[in-house]
Description:
Distance between the termini: 44 Å
Order of helices and strands: HHHHHHHHHEEHEEHH
Strand content: 5-15%
Helix content: 40-55%
Largest sheet: 2 strands, antiparallel
Amino acid sequence: MPTSPKFPALTALDGLLDDLGVGEARRRQLRMVRGELQRALDRGALPVAARRSLQRLLEKESIDPYVRLAESGTLRHRRVEGGYPATSEPTNDIRRRCIDLLREALGLPPLHLGGGEVQLQPIPEAAALSALSRQLDQYLGGAMSAAQTRLTAVLALELDTAARSGELVSLRTTHLTEDDTAVLIRRRPQHGVRDDQGEGEWIETSALTRAALERWRPIRQDLVERAHGTSKLWVSLWMNHDGLLDADGGTVIRPAGMPLEENGLITSYRVGRLRYEGLRSLLPLKLDRLRRAVDAERQRTAL
Length: 303
């Protein structure tokens, strides 16, 4: 994460963020707030003392003008349709949550800046989850493309584990037993204690998941061998680039068979939902809504 030598408060903030145990989605949100704070300081929009002290940067006297500027769109890092429109209410709520999270990590009480809770979207019911299992089982009875095979295995494993997207992409082949009857999940909650280095939770897999992994493994192995190897369970299917420019302005091409990134997993979910027969009516728009449905069903059946 970049630091600004002009502002010691940002250097301290970067250190706080590095030590903060949060999931990747929350970390992206915190990076957004960090960037906005730097732009507010660069503009001289915050009290001078906020440049020198992280505590002063996160005090209400600094946060109030920062929030007003950020919500107006002034602190956007790029134009949207030629301008800098105000940020949406969900983004505003995320910003407020991040501010309170940072304050709490620094030992300060939350500000509770208002705006209310973002209403969670409805999740699929148990009947829809059962129908999804049947649809995936039907896929396994016929021919599938590599992309459909991978998505089928991902969805089957999701139905077993209620894993977050970051937890899914972190899986390695060593996180499965030899016969694929159990998978090791290390939880990475957005706001809470991460289990990246802990023992994790071994979860029994369904017959559906074992069959889906059996179809996926040969495809994965062929791709990985061409890309010179990785132990990650989910790998890319096509050549792509890493999004970074080199000194000549070019991008580094990544061959197929490289570890699948979280954005790639989410994209495959969205595309597959629209592409493959039966999924549009069974899958919610976002993978996290499916996760919450599976988690709710697991908790219900555990009672």
